[in-house]
Design a protein that fits this description.
The protein is of the alpha+beta class. It is built from five helices and 20 strands.
Length: 261
């Protein structure tokens, strides 16, 4: 059987299909990863207006339809709410340009976002190959409570998660306070993508966290180093100074799940 294609018609069908994704100059909405990284660093890794850590890339100067290139100096990060305000004319372009010059994350020193933690159930915390259930303090590392679970003082049944994470040189990189995470804007890069929070230095990630189920906090990869001790937790096990000490670990119904150092 022979098929005869009308190439001209196929071309116009292709243009119609691609229309939402390209502008009048033929520029695709896809922003190269190296330019995205530059935009994140310029914006402080969060919405320049409010500092929220879940964001969208938005062409401001010029608007996307008039842009001929993806210029990182004219693109910024806006959270969904601020982007909606801009679209509905409740947030002016002039204000956004002013905030691009002095993003809120650089003023506060961190980006933040709430976590969805299910109520009335024991929270399961997975860190690499380790699972902690009903452990108020899952990990103590070098005398510091890396994670802690508590309930509000008002007697409600909400589960509150708090913790401190350190980068490879011992500086605080991420603070979780009562289900809200705050990431230090001095980190090399902070990425929120596909339900994941990824914090990385110049060379590699040191924290990959996922919160896709309300009663399970999944930390896929965690690395920290304080003093002369490097501590890594991944799906391959638990490592200290590059030597695996535990392949799998489960802690249930205990005050402290694991104490290292």
């Amino acid at each position: 059987m022979m098929y005869i294609f009308d190439l001209e018609r196929l071309y116009f069908v292709y243009l119609e299909y691609m229309k939402p994704n390209i502008n009048k100059h033929g520029l695709s909405r896809y922003i190269p990863e190296d330019i995205k990284r530059e935009i994140r660093k310029k914006s402080g890794f969060g919405c320049v207006i409010c500092g929220k850590g879940i964001y969208e890339y938005d062409h401001i100067n010029p608007e996307f339809n008039d842009a001929k290139t993806h210029d990182p100096n004219g693109i910024t990060l806006l959270c969904g709410q601020c982007h909606s305000k801009k679209t509905r004319k409740f947030l002016s372009r002039e204000t956004i340009l002013e905030m691009m010059a002095n993003p809120v994350p650089f003023v506060t020193g961190f980006v933040n976002e709430s976590m969805d933690i299910k109520l009335d159930e024991n929270l399961i915390i997975k860190i690499g190959a380790a699972i902690f259930t009903n452990c108020p303090i899952p990990i103590v590392f070098k005398g510091k409570e890396v994670l802690k679970i508590s309930k509000p003082s008002d007697g409600s049944t909400n589960i509150l998660l708090s913790g401190i994470f350190f980068d490879s040189i011992g500086n605080k990189s991420l603070i979780i306070e009562n289900n809200e995470w705050k990431a230090n804007t001095e980190n090399w890069d902070i990425i929120t993508k596909g339900g994941e929070l990824i914090i990385k230095n110049e060379f590699e990630p040191f924290l990959i966290m996922e919160n896709d189920k309300r009663n399970i906090l999944n930390i896929k990869f965690f690395k920290t180093e304080i003093g002369n001790m490097k501590f890594v937790m991944s799906d391959q096990g638990i490592f200290i100074n590059n030597s695996r000490i535990i392949k799998e670990f489960i802690a249930e119904n205990c005050q402290i799940g694991m104490m290292i150092g």
